[in-house]
Amino acid sequence: MLHLLRISLCTAGSQLRAPIVRLRNIHVSSITEAGHSKWQNIRHIKALNDGRKSVLFIKLARQIRLAIQAGGPNPAVNSTLRAAIDEALKKNMPNSTVQGILKKSAQNASQLKKYTLEIKVLDQINMICVLYTDRFTQTKMEMATILKKNCSTFSDVKHHFDERGYLEAIPPANISSDNLLSCCTDHAIDAGAEDVEIMSDESRLVRFLCDPLDIEKVKTQLGKLGYSIEHSEHAFFPKSTTKLNPDATVVYEKLREKLKTVDGVEDIYDSFEMVY
Fold it and tell me: Alpha carbon of 119 to those of 49, 56, 108, 147, 212: distances in Å?
């Protein structure tokens, strides 16, 4: 299988990018996406998840509950749960709150299920909301009311997005900065990833992209190679983005904030182009 690996060097405060490199069949061409890679919009996507502390804690609690569903309530044998707890504590969630979530989750027999809702906003912006909930019908009705009041509706828009497995990882310390690109490229091929990008020389954070079905396989292989997995998800990247005028931008951002507070909303992906 031919792997296309896009390698970009992204340094803090710089928009310089390295050329695209096609491995095994070398080809070099310039980036045409106005100074940023095709996947740059993920930064905006991730920023959507960094809202108010109360919203963040609800999401972290949901991740703990999902981890318990997947592998049981014992973090000693459930690595996913251990990682979810570590992430919650890293985000300053009190340990007493974490323990309360663990106790409550163990007593709750209902199962969270994943749902994907497609939305057309203001007849211009394509949006995908990923939900984990045990009350989908009520949640969808709540969202429908919000959308109706903001000139938006449920609509078939998924074909406007590329679905990708998205992982952020820190390579092992024995890989020097001078060899970071080449080593991560080789490891991406070994792990089954299709694209790799060095996000920062300083933090040594590396972004891997793969087929959504291969996320766990890539995560496992990178772990065996000594990588510390910081984050992974099934992400939706817009094929194109849209700018809004200032008034419409205000309306859109208010709508987005309302949707983020709906119980069960895990991630929001959209085609809105940020204007800096």
Answer: 18, 23, 31, 9, 21
The two tokens of residue 205 are 């954070």
The two structure tokens encoding residue 97: 């709150």
Q: pLDDT tens digit string along 31-52?
A: 333 334 555 555 444 444 444 5
Give Cα separations from 218 to 85, 192, 202, 227 (angstroms).
Answer: 22, 6, 24, 11
* Spatial separation of the C-alpha atoms in residues 22 and 211, rounded to whole Å: 18
Q: Which residue from 91, 99, 95 is spatially nearest to 59, judged by alpha carbons?
A: 91
Alpha-carbon distance of 10 to 12, in angstroms, equals: 7
Query: Are the C-beta atoms of 119 and 105 separated by less than 8 Å?
Result: no
Q: Residue 61: is its pLDDT beyond 80?
A: yes
Task: Judge contact between 218 and 210, C-beta under 8 A.
Answer: yes
pTM given for the model: 0.73
CA separation for the pair 94, 221 (Å, rounded): 33
- Is the pLDDT assigned to residue 21 strictly greater than 70? no
Q: Distance between CA atoms of 164 and 215, rounded to whole angstroms? A: 9
Residue 179's SS3 state is: helix
Rounded to 10 degrees, what is the CA torsion of 122, 128, 133, 138? 30
Indicate the SS3 state at residue 70. helix
- The model's pLDDT over 80-90, given as tens digits with 9 standing for 90+, comes to 888 889 888 98
CA distance 105 to 116: 23
Residues 6+ positions from 123 with CB-CB distance below 8 Å: 151
